[in-house]
């Protein structure tokens, strides 16, 4: 296997990996070298912290006043969170009030009770829970983003107890984590994120009498050591995703904020070059992040916004193509955004942020859209931000950010609310931009690269009357429990069809697949009356009797969706048509009508039609095997209804499913019957009361007499 991988590598990759392995050997031998020191500061520690090099919002004395006036609840939340930190309690990912001991044990995973050993980082496998616990939890603490929260609380209150906690914590961390040793040096991304946090904390505490010369000198030297480690072990081939772009951002920070470092110019130049190159490689032409993950797409937006703002602050600018690419990335997030403002989960979601300047739920992107609105001058981003500038914008851009946002007239996009992102792999169908709109997302792309994509080909998510009903199950965890990791990213946790109980892809570790099958779009049409998508995937061609799954979705605006699943094969197979709901009540009657009511009585009806007998069941909170779960945040899982229609039959087979938003779920369902063609195969649906018919042929869809024709 290793020889096969080596044969696939380019000479550049072999050279890069070889150099990195050599550096590891030298470091373990104690001859790894040190980062250059910057000149002495004299008696004024603030001389190393030039406010003109950093974010205007972080350095302006006016910012705390603006934040308190415009976002009092957010200000109180920051101070409350900082108070918990001072008491040794940390809210990290989906966990609340975690304790790592007193003093803090920086290598402890309290959720597993495992403490990673203090050895050279290359001797540790971060994916080995028996030796290091859940490295994700340990790293989240050691990103030191809570130091930034202490700094914000200090700026908001002037309370020196936050400064004391900051100085004490940093000193203890440096003593307990010697350079290159332990789990907290094992990931270049984590090192870069800690570097960023240290920069922010230094500027937020600038002016505090507790920030003495030795403290600043020690931290700035540490920032140099962090940047040197990142530069030496860039994830060009190990994880060329947000790991690489986050590391590049760390180099930009170190290079522009502390130009006194001997390698500062190279750090800055290298970081900006990587970010420029990766914007084209990681973001499709229509704005979809290549890992097929809305969480990591949001991370990418944060990374580039920070880079652009910080670079411009220092008279540096990215090419216009990068600016356009990032706006297309934000546009995709705007289109898939649920009508209630939440961001649907697609692919992996770890619950973290690049820099959480305001406590937010992981599906709340108002802060990102607010800053993007002010930076790019986009009224539609201002609308997605809720029409008000978020605290993040004030901390990043200061008063000028506030004024830029206020100059915009927040309004939804002027373009068609339904849109296909064919290259990126998603089709969006919605009635409009109102908060009570109907909204459906169909996954028509590949399983994402670099391990954060799920086996969710042709899956749907659906919101009715603004409320998400059919959802992605989420992630739950990465490494602590591989059985749960594999379940949440399997096809069984998504609203699509499984064949013979198998997932569309087979895991080969927590972040790899044995193969990554693809879906392809055959057809997309959208007009005022309907949206139509036709796609198929090849994941089940690997079976002894190869099976192709084709899914067509028709949205008859604004009333209902019809989902047509064609399973093409030649032998007998078990088929499971799955619909994963959000936590809500779901019931199914003997006639196969499933009801999913919202609290106000409105909701979604689901009914499949086919020529064979279907068994219907609702599964929830089952563990052996897992079924009926959602994970709203990393480390959390909750029971949620999974509606399954099953049959064992010879293929080919067609199932036609009606997704019907209704004002009163408890009312009798409409009378709907199956249309058949001359061979008695399902050909569409008839609504008995209105006599409306929806017909499907191989290349034709018709609604009454209105039709669109396939070009084939």
SSE diagram, text form:
Layout (H helix, E strand, L loop, with lengths): L1 H7 L2 H18 L27 H4 L3 H8 L1 H15 L3 E3 L2 E4 L9 E2 L4 E2 L13 H4 L2 H8 L2 H13 L2 H17 L11 H17 L8 H20 L9 H16 L6 H19 L11 H20 L6 H17 L29 H11 L2 H6 L6 H16 L12 E3 L4 E5 L8 E5 L16 E5 L2 E4 L11 H7 L8 E3 L19 E8 L3 E8 L10 E9 L3 E9 L3 E9 L6 E2 L5 E4 L5 E7 L5 E5 L2 E2 L2 E2 L1 E2 L7 E2 L2 E9 L2 E10 L9 E5 L5 E6 L4 E5 L3 E4 L2 E4 L3
Antiparallel strand pairs: 1-2, 3-4, 5-6, 6-7, 7-8, 8-9, 10-15, 11-12, 12-13, 13-14, 14-25, 15-24, 16-17, 17-18, 18-25, 19-24, 20-21, 22-23, 26-27, 27-28, 28-29, 29-30
Helix pairs in contact: 4-5, 4-18, 5-8, 8-9, 8-10, 10-11, 10-12, 11-12, 12-13, 12-14, 14-15, 14-16, 16-18
Structure description:
The protein has 712 residues and is an alpha+beta fold. The chain has two domains: 34-406, Alpha/alpha barrel (Glycosyltransferase), CATH 1.50.10; 419-684, Beta-galactosidase, Chain A, domain 5, CATH 2.70.98.70. It contains 19 helices and 30 strands. The chain has an eight-stranded antiparallel beta sheet with strand order 11-12-13-14-25-18-17-16, with no helix packed on it. A hairpin with a 3-residue loop joins strand 28 (692-696) and strand 29 (700-703). The two termini are 43 Å apart.
């Amino acid at each position: 296997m290793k020889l096969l991988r080596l044969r696939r590598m380019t000479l550049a990759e072999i050279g890069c990996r070889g150099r990195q392995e050599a550096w590891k050997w030298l470091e373990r031998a104690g001859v790894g070298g040190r980062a250059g020191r910057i000149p002495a500061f004299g008696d004024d520690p603030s001389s190393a912290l030039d406010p003109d090099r950093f974010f205007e919002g972080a350095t302006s004395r006016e910012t705390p006043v603006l934040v308190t006036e415009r976002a009092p609840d957010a200000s109180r939340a920051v101070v409350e969170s900082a108070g918990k930190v001072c008491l040794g309690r940390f809210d990290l990912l989906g966990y609340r009030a975690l304790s790592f001991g007193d003093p803090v044990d920086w290598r402890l995973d309290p959720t597993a009770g495992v403490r990673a050993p203090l050895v050279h980082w290359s001797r540790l496998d971060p994916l080995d829970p028996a030796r290091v616990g859940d490295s994700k939890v340990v790293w989240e603490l050691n990103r030191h983003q809570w130091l930034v929260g202490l700094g914000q609380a200090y700026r908001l209150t002037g309370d020196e107890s936050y400064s004391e906690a900051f100085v004490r914590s940093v000193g203890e961390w440096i003593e307990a984590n010697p350079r290159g040793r332990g789990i907290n040096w094992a990931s270049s991304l984590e090192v870069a994120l800690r570097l960023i946090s240290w920069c922010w904390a230094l500027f937020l505490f600038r002016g505090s009498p507790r920030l003495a010369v030795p403290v600043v000198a020690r931290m700035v030297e540490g920032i140099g050591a962090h940047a040197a480690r990142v530069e030496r072990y860039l994830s060009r081939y190990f994880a060329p995703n947000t790991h690489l772009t986050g590391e590049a951002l760390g180099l930009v920070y170190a290079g522009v904020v502390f130009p006194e470092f001997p390698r500062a110019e190279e750090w800055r130049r290298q970081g900006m070059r990587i970010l420029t190159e990766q914007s084209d490689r990681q973001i499709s032409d229509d704005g979809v992040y290549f890992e097929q993950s809305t969480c990591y797409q949001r991370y990418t937006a944060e990374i580039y916004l920070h880079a652009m703002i910080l670079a411009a602050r220092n008279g540096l600018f990215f090419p216009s193509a990068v600016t356009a690419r990032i706006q297309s990335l934000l546009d995709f997030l705007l289109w898939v955004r649920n009508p209630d403002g939440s961001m649907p989960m697609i692919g992996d979601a770890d619950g973290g942020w690049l820099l959480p300047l305001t406590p937010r739920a992981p599906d709340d992107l108002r802060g990102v859209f607010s800053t993007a609105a002010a930076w790019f001058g986009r009224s539609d981003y201002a609308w997605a931000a809720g029409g008000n500038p978020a605290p993040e914008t004030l901390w990043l851009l200061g008063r000028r950010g506030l004024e830029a946002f206020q100059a915009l007239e927040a309004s939804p996009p002027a373009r068609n609310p339904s849109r296909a992102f064919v290259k990126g792999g998603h089709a969006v169908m919605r009635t409009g931009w109102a908060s009570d709109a109907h909204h459906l997302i169909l996954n028509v792309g590949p399983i994402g690269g670099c391990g954060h994509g799920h086996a969710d080909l042709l899956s749907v998510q659906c919101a009715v009357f603004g409320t998400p009903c059919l959802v992605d199950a989420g992630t739950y965890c990465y490494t602590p429990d591989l059985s749960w990791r594999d379940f949440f990213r399997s096809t069984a946790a998504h609203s699509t069809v499984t064949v013979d109980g198998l997932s569309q892809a087979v895991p080969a570790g927590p972040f790899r697949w044995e193969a990554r099958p693809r879906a392809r779009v055959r057809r997309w049409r959208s007009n005022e009356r309907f949206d139509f998508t036709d796609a198929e995937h090849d994941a089940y061609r690997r079976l002894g009797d190869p099976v192709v799954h084709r899914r067509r979705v028709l949205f008859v605006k604004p009333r209902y969706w019809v989902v047509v699943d064609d399973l093409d094969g030649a032998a007998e197979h078990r088929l499971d048509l799955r619909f994963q709901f959000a936590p809500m009540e779901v019931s199914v009657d003997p006639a196969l009508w499933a009801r999913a009511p919202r609290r106000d009585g409105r909701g979604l009806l689901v009914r499949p039609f086919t020529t064979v007998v279907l068994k219907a069941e609702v599964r929830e909170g089952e563990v052996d095997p897992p079924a009926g779960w959602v994970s709203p945040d990393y480390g959390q899982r909750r029971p949620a209804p999974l509606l399954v229609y099953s049959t064992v039959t010879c293929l080919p087979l067609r199932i036609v499913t009606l997704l019907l938003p209704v004002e009163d779920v408890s009312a009798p369902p409409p009378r709907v019957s199956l249309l058949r063609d001359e061979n008695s195969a399902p050909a569409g649906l008839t609504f008995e009361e209105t006599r409306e018919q929806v017909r499907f042929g191989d290349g034709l869809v018709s609604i009454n007499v209105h039709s669109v024709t396939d070009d084939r």
